[in-house]
Write a structure and sequence with these properties.
The protein is α+β, with helices and mostly antiparallel strands. It has a single domain, classed as 60s Ribosomal Protein L30, Chain: A, CATH 3.30.1330. 27% of the residues lie in helices and 26% in strands. It has 2 helices and 4 strands; from the N terminus they run βαβαββ. It has a 4-stranded mixed β-sheet. Helix 1 packs parallel to helix 2. The longest helix has 18 residues. The mean pLDDT is 94.
């Protein structure tokens, strides 16, 4: 991942709130399935970046929250599906729980558009 990203000029900065895996009814999607939740989270980040006039490649910073550090090994290939080898500056944090006990991952982002 990038250690830092420098922003200069007249770009727009988009702050994306923590994204989690929701289903269509507003409940937890992919309950108990870390990779399923991670894919849903990154799809949500992509949608938010696009709604702000950008794309996933405009994301320059990720803060990722996991409920168990052992999920890190499963996170890496899923994140690569979306970002490839060009990773944003990133922070990974473990926490005992997220806002719902069945969420396993939450990711917030900053994009420069």
């Amino acid at each position: 991942y990038a250690q830092g990203i420098k922003v200069t000029g007249g770009q727009t900065i988009l702050f994306i709130s923590g994204q989690v895996a929701y289903d269509k009814k507003g409940g937890v999607a992919h309950k108990g399935d870390f990779q399923g939740q991670a894919r849903a989270v990154f799809k949500n980040l992509k949608a938010m970046a696009e709604a702000g006039g950008g794309k996933l490649s405009n994301i320059v910073k990720l803060n990722t929250y996991l409920t168990d550090i052992r999920y890190r090994a499963d996170l890496i290939p899923v994140r690569a599906e979306f970002f490839g080898k060009r990773l944003p500056a990133s922070t990974l944090i473990t926490t005992p729980a997220l806002a719902h006990p069945d969420w396993l991952i939450e990711v917030e982002a900053i994009a420069v558009i």
